[in-house]
Amino acid sequence: MDAGLKAWAEIVRHVYPDLTILRDRTQWLAGNFDTPSVFIEADLVSDKVHTPRADRIVEDVGLVFHFDKERLTEEDEGEPIPFDLTPLFTYLRQKRFCYASKRFGVALVIEPPRTRPEKDRIEVTCRYSYLLAVPKEPVSKINSFFIQT
Question: Which residues in the chain come in under a pLDDT of 50?
Answer without folding.
Answer: 72, 75-78
